[in-house]
Amino acid sequence: MPYRLGVDVGGTFTDLILVDEKSGSIHTAKVPSTPADSSIGVMNGVARVCDNAGVDPSEISQVMHGTTVATNTVLTGSGAKVGLVTTKGYRQVLQIARSYVPGGLGGWVIYNKSEPLAPLSCTIEADERMAADGSVVRKLNKAGLTRELKKLKKENIEALTISLVNSYANPAHEREVEKIAKQVLPGIPVSLSYNVVPEMQEYERTITTVANSYVRPKVAAYVKNLERKLKAKMKDVKLHILRSDGGMASAKVAQSLPVNLLMSGPAGGVSGAVWVAKQAGFENLLTFDMGGTSTDVALVQNNKAQLRRETTVGDVTVRASSVDVRTVGAGGGSIAHVPELTGALRVGPESAGAEPGPAAYNKGGDLPTVTDANVVLGYLPSEVRLGGDMEIRKDRAEKAIKPVADALGISVKRAAAGIIDIVNENMYGALRLVSVEQGFDPRDFALIGFGGAGPLHANALGKLMNSWPVII
Hints:
Number of strands: 24
CATH class of the largest domain: Alpha Beta
Largest sheet: 6 strands, mixed
Radius of gyration: 24 Å
């Protein structure tokens, strides 16, 4: 009997759903994420969900996976050392960029520009030129390029990007450069701008292709590793990775074009919410996905999520379609604190994450989090076991929140209520970004709350937004 498995890896938990393709019956599992190697958490989850369902893993034919590996690689700056080949005269394309400085007229005073994903020391020029109509203005100097690539080899790059002027009109020179690069730099993955984003505008095409190279080794290693582990348990399984725009990519395509996975995780939640709301008869909705580390919100109109042509992660913006999701650092693991200077309660963006997690999880955490506040107030009953077997300790949650209560001079329960109110306001601001500030009236939309902590806060946000009904 064939089964289909869905896997979503979050910052705190990994969630799995197993669907019987014939009967439609479902089984779920929740296990702690393993940030050092997400595939460990995935395989732990596979074992758990199959055990719950009494199913042999070999019966699973397809695995659909939403991953944050590409996102986290950009956010943490842990990507590959990238080399870049540009047309002669365009060596500083990433440094010049669009000369945009955020923050208005005086923004340059405090603006700290981040280093490009491909450093200038690893950027070389190819003596060639292609016209906008695709005709050759100047043939590629192969001997000169070979010398430059040999110099670049000494920089010990881990990935190479080739982005030549007007290559979207004629990629012949990019392909010639690729052929030479594979001879001079064997084993180094090469990304061509023509393959990644064959469009005009040199900077956007270059930064997108460089970003592809930057995350490619890590994403490829993760996908290969996960596919190997899955095939050891499931002989003929097919692995599909969720793209930023809500579509699916094969494992092979995901490895070669990982720039399309930068918003893979959040896009999955929106796609699922659209399906659920459609079954309930609602076409217009605000999606509210609250996990352990962050909250993602989006607007759906006529059963279609709003899309944007660009994807932004941190301060990197690339030309890749994605669901228009806004993220705030407010989740179940967000840490509450009272700064000595102001004496005012603050929540997030720092998170307790999966390790050690909220104090109530009894895994070594002792800092007050939103989850602990929910436990203290009884919104998350301590009698219930998370995922079926994770114990919740109310006494530890109360102990964690007591320092906050003492600093504010109030009771533990009032401090917990204050934490909940503040995190709700943070998420309310994000929901306004995708609705009111885009010209939409939230009263015309249903609010659907999901994610580990979403249903706990959905009603409060429904009241703040005046959205009806609230679906969980």
